[in-house]
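Same chain as my last thread, 150 residues:
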Amino acid sequence: MLILTLVTASMVMAEPPAADERAEIIAAADRFIAAINSNDAEAIRQMSISQRVSISLRYQPDGSSNIRAKSSSQEAEGLATETRKFTEKYWDPTVLIHNGIAVFWAPYSFDIDGKRSHCGVDQFDFIKIDGQWKLASSMWTVEPNGCPKE
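reply #2:
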């Protein structure tokens, strides 16, 4: 009887993640996107774990797709030499958190030099290290015909 009561009590006490943790994940995603938008390779290095991988699933006009994968250092090196102006925006984010891991998922648009390039879905995985949310992996779709009507 006592065991059943303790199990039931612990189930009742379980609560969804605190709103401030959700805000921390969104702020971490915002920092990553701001670094992309400002070509700030050093900021990306600082907010990422060294083993991070970024993967894009690129859809072609004919319906085929290809995958591009880069290490965190490859991505940062490419961004450091980039001269084009990127503007990425997301909306309606979904955030899932369990202990020291979190997922950020959101549709987004991506402009290059002020012209819409594509839309898609971003997925960023975070891990909490020494009290800070670090980017563990990033994945996104590239859908040239996937943008919502404005």
